[in-house]
């Protein structure tokens, strides 16, 4: 039982809290203690729950339910051995109590022994008629084992017992999707909808399956039925908008996204999608207006900053693009995409030192794409820092061995630094791995390309 502030059911709770303030011990029956403990656990007030358990057991030392609450707290605090010993004692007193099996399974699960947890939960199923929660727990244990087929079966069992168990429905569809069984998911949802035709969640999930299969017309129909079932279902309007975008019906998509703004607080996702639709309709003013609203609504949404930066970048307004990406970096300096955009924009503005700094930061953040190494190295060459460029490309070749684009650059750099043996080594490697990239020598190192040794090596292979 949950206590309420507007009826007399909270009198035991009030009495208990008053007792704590006065240190004057009062008597409660065991059921009152159970309700008090349950209330505190739901509120996340563990310390108060522990006080209630301690006092409860002092007044009712044989109460199995109070001992089960004690075990629940011990498991929560990772005191698993102590909890297990208490459970064994309880099991000898009440071997048919399914809650004992549930807590035993919880201990196995916390020890990552999920198969044993499943076996114990299956024993608990035999002891009760209230099986839905147990099926759900078994399904979750199978998910921990990445056994999606078995998990799916148990979540389906939940729905056979309770058609309104939407958590189980989401988990069933999650299993189908993980197994790439989208057609099977559609079949299952259609059977489910025959039994529960006004279930907006099922229609919504059906639409998502059709969307994955690119059957956008059937997806739209499914979202229509979801909205008929519940015309305030924000998720259905959002997915319908996405589908309309795929069909290039941008005005209709905007209409659906706009409905969500009226039904609930504006979401940055909806604002971003509206901005994108207006951009595709070449309505730059409204596109910018919605992009601005997106970053104002949620400054942490990287897609908003990326969209507004790329908008200005595409228009050739690099100074504005740089302004916005700098604002984004000030909010989240660990975002790799921000730094890549920062580098590209600075490069276009011929701010080569800043561009190189951006690529360096990108690499430091773990983005080891080939293009990042090449772009940074080429900028170091342009900035007259050949030793730093060599170090950059030597690191790059560890990630991309036998890559001709890197090898020609190292060859050119080593010849430039008068390290002929190393230059020859990398030039031969570059020629061996891909002769087509030989133009790199002439393009990046025109003086090197005129050296007799380089000319002869290239000429011999052309």
Keywords:
462 residues, mainly alpha, Serine Threonine Protein Phosphatase 5, Tetratricopeptide repeat, 28 helices, elongated, disordered N terminus
Protein model, in words:
The chain is mostly helical. Among the domains are: about 100 residues, Alpha Horseshoe (Serine Threonine Protein Phosphatase 5, Tetratricopeptide repeat); about 100 residues, Tetratricopeptide repeat domain (Serine Threonine Protein Phosphatase 5, Tetratricopeptide repeat). Helix content is about 75%, strand content about 0%. It has 28 helices and no strands. Helix 6 packs antiparallel against helix 7, helix 23 runs antiparallel to helix 24 and helix 24 packs antiparallel against helix 25. It is elongated. It starts with 10 loop residues before the first helix and ends with a helix.
The end-to-end distance, rounded to whole angstroms, is 85 Å
- Average the pLDDT over all residues and give the rounded result: 89
Low-confidence stretches: 3-8
State the secondary-structure class.
mainly alpha
**Biggest β-sheet description:** none
Radius of gyration: 32 Å
CATH architecture of the domain at 265-361: Alpha Horseshoe
Q: Which fold does the CATH topology of the domain at 265-361 refer to?
A: Serine Threonine Protein Phosphatase 5, Tetratricopeptide repeat
Number of E-state strands:
0
CATH superfamily of the domain at 265-361: Tetratricopeptide repeat domain
Note the run of SSEs as H and E.
Answer: HHHHHHHHHHHHHHHHHHHHHHHHHHHH
CATH class of the domain at 265-361: Mainly Alpha
Query: How large a portion of the residues is in β-strands, by DSSP E?
Result: under 5%
Contiguous helical run count: 28
What percent of residues adopt helix (DSSP H or I)? over 70%
Shape assignment:
elongated
């Amino acid at each position: 039982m949950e206590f309420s502030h507007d009826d007399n059911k909270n009198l035991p709770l009030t009495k208990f809290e008053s007792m704590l303030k006065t240190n004057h011990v009062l008597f409660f029956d065991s059921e009152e203690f159970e309700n008090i403990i349950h209330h505190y656990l739901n509120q996340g007030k563990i310390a108060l729950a522990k006080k209630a358990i301690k006092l409860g057991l002092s007044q009712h030392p044989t109460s199995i339910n109070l001992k089960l609450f004690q075990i629940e707290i011990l498991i929560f605090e990772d005191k698993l051995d102590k909890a297990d010993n208490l459970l064994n004692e309880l099991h000898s007193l009440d071997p048919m109590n399914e809650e004992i099996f549930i807590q035993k399974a919880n201990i196995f699960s916390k020890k990552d022994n999920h198969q044993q947890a499943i076996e114990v939960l299956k024993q608990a199923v035999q002891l009760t008629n209230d099986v839905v929660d147990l099926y759900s727990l078994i399904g979750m244990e199978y998910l921990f084992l990445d056994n999606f087929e078995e998990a799916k079966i148990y979540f389906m069992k939940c729905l056979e017992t309770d058609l309104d168990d939407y958590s189980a429905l989401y988990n069933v569809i999650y299993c189908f999707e993980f197994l790439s069984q989208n057609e099977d998911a559609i079949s299952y949802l259609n059977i489910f909808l025959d039994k529960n035709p006004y279930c907006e969640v099922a229609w919504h999930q059906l639409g998502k399956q059709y969307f994955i299969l690119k059957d956008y017309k059937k997806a739209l129909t499914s979202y229509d039925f979801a909205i008929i079932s519940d015309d305030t279902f924000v998720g259905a309007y959002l997915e319908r908008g996405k589908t309309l975008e795929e069909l290039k019906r941008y005005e209709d998509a905007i209409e659906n996204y706009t409905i969500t703004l009226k039904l609930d607080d504006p979401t940055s996702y909806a604002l971003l999608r509206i901005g994108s639709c207006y951009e595709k309709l070449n309505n730059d003013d409204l596109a910018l207006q919605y992009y601005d609203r997106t970053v104002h609504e949620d400054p942490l949404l990287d897609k908003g900053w990326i969209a507004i930066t790329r908008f200005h970048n595409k228009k050739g307004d690099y100074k504005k693009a740089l302004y916005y990406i700098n604002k984004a970096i000030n909010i989240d300096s660990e975002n790799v995409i921000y730094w890549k955009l920062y580098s590209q924009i600075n490069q276009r503005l011929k701010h080569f030192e800043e561009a190189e700094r951006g690529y360096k930061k990108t690499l430091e953040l773990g983005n080891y794409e080939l293009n990042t190494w090449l772009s940074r190295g080429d900028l170091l060459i342009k900035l007259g820092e050949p030793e730093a460029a060599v170090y950059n490309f030597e690191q790059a070749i560890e990630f991309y061995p036998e890559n001709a684009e890197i090898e020609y650059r190292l060859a050119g750099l080593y010849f430039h630094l008068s390290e002929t043996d190393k230059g020859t080594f990398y030039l031969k490697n570059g020629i061996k791995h891909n002769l087509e990239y030989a133009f790199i020598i002439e393009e990046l190192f025109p003086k090197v390309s005129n050296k007799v040794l380089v000319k002869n090596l290239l000429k011999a292979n052309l």
